[in-house]
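Team,

Forwarding the record for the chain on the shared tracking sheet. I've put the sequence and predicted structure together so nobody has to dig through attachments.
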Amino acid sequence: MTDSAHPETLGQPSWITAPETAAVLDALEAEGGADCARFVGGAVRNALVRRAVGDIDIATTLTPERVIRALEAARLKAVPTGIEHGTVTAVSDRKPHEITTLRRDVATDGRRAVVAFTDDWAEDAERRDFTLNALYARRDGTIFDPTGQGVADAKAGRIVFVGQPEHRLREDYLRILRFFRFYAHFGKGEANGSAVAACAALKDQIDTLAAERISKELLKLLAADDPRPAVRLMADTGVLAVILKAPANVARFEALVEVESDQLFETDAVLRLAALLPDDQVAAGRLAERLRLSNPDRDRIVAALAPTPMLKSWMSPREIRRALYRSSLPTFRDRAKLAWAASPRSATTMQWRGLIALAEGWARPTFPITGADVMNAGAPKGPMVGQILREVEDWWIDHDFLDDKMSAIEKLKAVVQGLAY
């Protein structure tokens, strides 16, 4: 490990020179000197590989107490978001900047770590997960690559653990999923063999992690532009089986990703997760509960895997409207995409496209008969009202949502008379 500058530089991109970021760095440097703070991790990595920079993380030699003091002196908001691990969030012009004191691990158990603060940049790099994440940069764009591999690995798309893979994983078993997530987003070519072997050997330790941590990583992984190679590798190593506790439908998942790509649909991590699951609503619900998915995501996955109505590319417009009325547009769209992914791709693309387009363009009508209409027709108040409504609504649907309330009233009268008879 070394703290010497790398010959490459980031230059002066807008995310570095932005006034809100400059204000944070000015505050830290006023407290600790010119090289007390450097950008770290994702921002540096993304800038290197020409990707958009989102969150801005800063590493510093200042202790958390000094970071807070520096920010408050500069009249910036300081939020102790992870003070026990050295993290303070600075809010500058409403933009958060996560600032973490350099640290080293004192003790780990695969789920959490006890850390000690340090002022050694190389020591901080040693505890990070992958070489492409152990990169630092000064505000002048100078890059520091303590492992000596981070810049090259980032550019080549190699996801390589810092040090021994098994040691890194035993520090935090979530890194098993992070390996596949970073391979999905940044990996190129064949995955690192020693990393894959370590993930496979320790895959059962995933069960020791909090469900929320697992689901968060999994959904981030599935949100990659093309996560198919990573998911295939997860299946081959047994990691996917540990997470899903069920046989994975990798073929449908891969076909869905292809459909999304070919048809310019937005990437959809939740629907991709549904595609991986067996067509079993009960099992899907259990998985959603076990992974602590949000209620909307759970309900969406369960609805997408409903067994009926069966959607086919050759459905008539009338059949499409009937199926759509019994569902909702978002659920119908999800189920259509899953059915599309499970169908032969040879000659049905235009049909599936047309089916979804028709559904999106159809205004769902309102059933014209009410409970009051039923009682006005002579039915007694009570459970029979609902029974009659359902029968008339079925007739109305069978007649393709007849836009004629008088005809519906006549049918209602016939039903009421028939029940009375």
